[in-house]
Amino acid sequence: MGDEKHPNMEDQLLTRNERVLDLYDAKSSDLPDEEEESLLPILNSLEESEERYKEIDLIAEGGEKRVTRVHDHRLNRQIAMARAIKAKNRQDQEQFLREAQLEANLAHPNIVPVHNMGIDPEGVPFFTMELIPGDSLKTVIKELREGNEEYVRRYPLSVLLHLFLKICDAIAYAHSRNVLHLDIKPDNIRVGEFGEVFICDWGLARILYSDMTTTDTGTLDGDILNDMTQTGMLKGTPGFMAPEQTRSQGDKIFQTDIYAMGALLYNILTYELPVSGNSANELIENTKAGKIIPPHSRRKGAKIPRGLATVSIKAMALDPSDRYPSVVELRAEITRYLNGLPTQAERAGIGTRLSLLIKRHNQYAALLIFSLLLLAAVISVNMVKLNRQKAAAVSARVQAEKNFRLYREQQDEVAKLGIELSDTTHFTAQSGDYSKAREMIRALEIALDKNPEPQKRNDLLVKKGTAHFVLQEFNAASECFEESKPSKPIDLDSWQLSKKYATLKPNDRRMLSLQQATELVEETMSLNKAINYFYYYYIMRKPSPTPEAYLPLAMAMLDKVNRINPTTSKHPMKLEKRPNGHHLDLTGSSYQIFSLSGIGLLRINILEPLEPYSMDISNLPLLTLAEFKGLHVKELNMTGVKTSRRRILIKQLEEMGVQRVIMTTGDYPDDIVDELRSKIEIIDSESSSR
């Protein structure tokens, strides 16, 4: 009945729908050309005929390749580019590209990743890789040999040994892929600014053929990637080459790389090569003869641990069968030393073992010594009380047996640990360094794909959850924690924070605001590595805010570092903008620590983003200005500050860039004040107050 009243209603509705659809179907081509092009900057950059890479400066140049810093205008980042130097014919060019393809197929956190390879407009082959700021290990060892105080402070033996462990991890991984490096030396190892370690230059690498057949697409093909020109030719670095590598027809096996690792450890301990020679030929002849100079003779007066010296000597045995069977076992030796245990290579006697045992169990050792002294006192005071003497002797014997039993149990634990350390994924799970969190996540995912036992799987999930947490990927972190059900308070804290902030920030790719980041830091139970790395990544990724906007986050971090309750403390720290820049007033504050340690090998100064031009630290209870390292301050008021290491005060002020300082000159020796006056404007606070 309604249709009879409105016979044309359906036609009218269809016409209206078509008009509405026409509005939504309007094409972008209706926009002006210039406006449409401005909306497509990335696509336009890919369509431009401009060369993709633009050279910035030279990084290094060797006999085979030239490495430069370049800008990739497509991805808008700086990377390193290696270009062939001596590739005059197609065979040489092929060999250069073999190195790039081989290195690109070795995916490990301690091997430099290759991004791209190709032929440039001039017909020269190239490949690009990650740009690694920092020094080569060769530079580090050179500065240590020359006594550079900064390098001596940054690279004690324990730090160098942990770098060596990472090198072992990379070579063990390469060996698991049947790849030999054949040119392991300090010059081919990069040490990054944040404790990263990368092995470079795989130009001499060789793939060992395996009798096992496989359909794995990731298997490296030695027929394609091996250097066909190596047969009958001598290649390597004298001093680090194994004896069999110095012979043109010598077999290259895993122990060939293990020899180079031993030479590298020797170089770390002594700062010198393991063999002597005035020429390359003499070095090679001494290598063939096995004339290794004892480490203690190479660096007289230095305390070179005997356990490590014997490890390096065993790794460089003349007969490959006398060396370590694998890099994993060499790594386990270094781990034993770092854990206070004797290495197997040194064949420690009972005296050495007991000495190390006492260091590990000093409380039990103190108890044993006290018992022996008490026994001696009883014997000397009352010789006639034989029963007491026997009782004391029995007591001492029981204690000695108990300590020895503890020692044997420790040995059993170490043996078990050695087996676990043979698994490369276990090394990743034990690492507490999240400075390469993204790479750690990839390594942990590979380990989880291998279906490890339940306890190890939970440990790996906790590590992965923490890595996502420091990158602000709270949803991914919550999933890992939910599956692993951690029990440690620190991990539980990270779990609870992840669940909360996953709700506040559902998109893991977005970042927290400054206010949210400040609240997260304030809500943590206590300062821990996860919060340190969260802060580090936040500052690295967040576009630089104004100093005033950054101030609350800085104070929250300082409260955690200095263990101050923010609900009861007053914040006397003030930031004031002046004509010359920002003035930071710390007078009367309770803060004594201003930097974070444990970020790789670096210390991060919390105050740095405040960009203070001038600073007042009057009467702070500071023993040194080292806590302000990393700041650049032109004017400093340090009235009433008495540093304990006064001789390095001048150097610390110069590193901070201080041009004018207000101080109580009477607190320092006259010669230091006079030397300061020759370099910096000094105002005596006592004179000015009169």
TrEMBL record:
The lineage of its organism: Bacteria, Pseudomonadati, Kiritimatiellota, Kiritimatiellia, Kiritimatiellales. Keywords: ATP-binding, Kinase, Membrane, Nucleotide-binding, Transferase, Transmembrane, Transmembrane helix. It comes from Pontiella sulfatireligans. PANTHER family: MITOGEN-ACTIVATED PROTEIN KINASE KINASE KINASE 20-RELATED, SERINE_THREONINE-PROTEIN KINASE NEKL-3. InterPro entries: Kinase-like_dom_sf, Prot_kinase_dom. This is Serine/threonine-protein kinase PknD. The gene is pknD_11. Residues 53-338 form the Protein kinase domain. The chain crosses the membrane at residues 364-384. PROSITE patterns: PROTEIN_KINASE_DOM (PS50011). GO terms for molecular function: ATP binding; protein serine/threonine kinase activity.
